[in-house]
Amino acid sequence: MEIRPILSALRHNLTGALLIATQVALTLAIISNSASVIRERLAVSQRDSGVDAESRILTQRPILFSQIDLANLIQTDLDALRAIPGVESVTVTNQVPMGRSGWSSTFATERVPTAPNQSAGLYFDGGRLLETFGLKLVEGRGFRDDEIVNIDPKVQNPPPTGVLLTRRLAEALFPGQSQFVGRVFYQGNTPDSEELRVIGVIERFTTPWAQTGPGNEYAVVFPARYLNPFNHYVVRAAPGAEAQVRKAMEEALEKNEPGRVSNGQYSIQEMRDRRYRGERALAWLLVSVTVFLLGVTASGIVGMASLWVNLRRKQIGVRRALGATRGDIVRYFLTENLIITSAGIAVGVLAAWGLNGVLMSELSVPRLPLDYLLSGVLLMLLLGVVAVLGPALRAAKLSPALATRSV
Amino acid sequence: MLQMDGVQKIYRTDLVQTYALRSLSLRVAEGEFVAVTGPSGSGKTTFLNIAGLLETFEAGTYRLDGEDVSKLSDHARSRLRNVKIGFIFQSFNLIPDLNVYDNVDVPLRYRGMAGSERKRRITEALERVGLASRHQHLPSQLSGGQQQRVAIARALAGSPRILLADEPTGNLDSLMAREVMNMLEEINAQGTTIVMVTHDPELARRVHRNIHVMDGQVSDLDQRLAA
User: Where is the ABC3 transporter permease C-terminal domain positioned along the sequence (chain A) (predicted)?
Assistant: First the structure.
């Protein structure tokens, strides 16, 4: 390999080589970080919500303008929904996972303002919530029907004390513990905070916001129907019955109280799609930027290599006259490009770490995984070889007789 | 050493075809120093290109050092060029980005020679042309005569069986031209066959034999010029 003479020749063509190396370095820094962010965003969008068969869990939120007895209306709505053929289970709740708006509260293990507290989604189980969402209990039990109470916001009635909470929240509230049933904690951390007792632990149940980080699995479930006009009815349809249940659901609610305004009907899968639209858009944007950058870099290498081939036509002819085979000429250009690309990669690796440091501190993106950086390095090497191959093959086809021509 | 019989070379474009060589036949014996002369466009350079395996030809046969090279592949021609032929060009054709040492090294690297052997040959060749002390200079830092001496060193380093020179003094003043010619005579005296294309009648007079090419044919074979 004639690396030393190539290095020597490159010293005399430094500007072009530096341009390509810089382009490679920047591309490597950007694409490796982009790939890492894309993976992280897509992983976030595919997180387990704890709800099984998301496409079969249908929600509808009719706004109850009726001034009649809300408790009675909710009960008759639930009965009507339960009677629909293809419905496996029904519940009413105040919010749904990934619904993007809902209730939260802070929870602590001490009634002391300085005590550490955790913010968590606050769900109401109007009966059969675990069954309808397909949530898995890992400890304790779910609510019995007789434990479900009506909470009227117009009346100051005490909330129920026995609650369910997610395992992640339990672990955050009671660090180092593995058994949580029977443990006491508080809604709030002031002296008059309500006391709550754990009766069951749910493996996983994401919040309406499905925020990034462990907080997305912090939830507390109360056994209650909240008597306000904005509840969500949730129906679990049998496999294959989703379409007929959707239609029947709307008709049943309309029939039970005509003229109600509904803000639409969604499956949890559709909620997921809406919630993570931004993540997917960002991922696609970054994929586009990555492809664009790779294209620009490849074009740069092709352009520079083509220019060098044209400028060195005579030199290539001389090399061929002196005994270089076509393979020698191709190898020369590949080696030259490999040297430039490798220099760019060396700088690019440092730039990628640097950029990642900035992104970590400013945008809370995760640390750049080493395998992503290595993949980026391999990709750039491959890109360099592929991009220079065309000009190198053209160079190899030049006639050795160019050596004896005056131009 | 070099034997061509009825070699024909045609350059074709979409519209015209030009006969650069028309049934050219000649022989150059081992150890000869031959000048190829002729007016511009007579086919001298085409002959040199074919003799140096830089170009193929349409008809005829060509034997180099006893081997029929008419049908060799591009790869085999490159290898043969590298081992058996040394070139000296009118415009020197040194690689401008490489220093003197690396320029002389170019054909040796293509031969896949070991580093120590290359170093020995390069040093010897540069000493022979009196430029050992300039081995780190770039071509642009040398005079025309010095550049041509580097080119001669590059041609000699591979110990070729035949040296093909294309107007080797064409870009040099008379003093330097004489110096280069003296060097070629010295190389020939040591046994290397030389075929030199030249316009210069004075140089042509100094060689063993002059071959005059006209309209792509040898018109004056085996004519010995008076010194």
Answer: 288-400
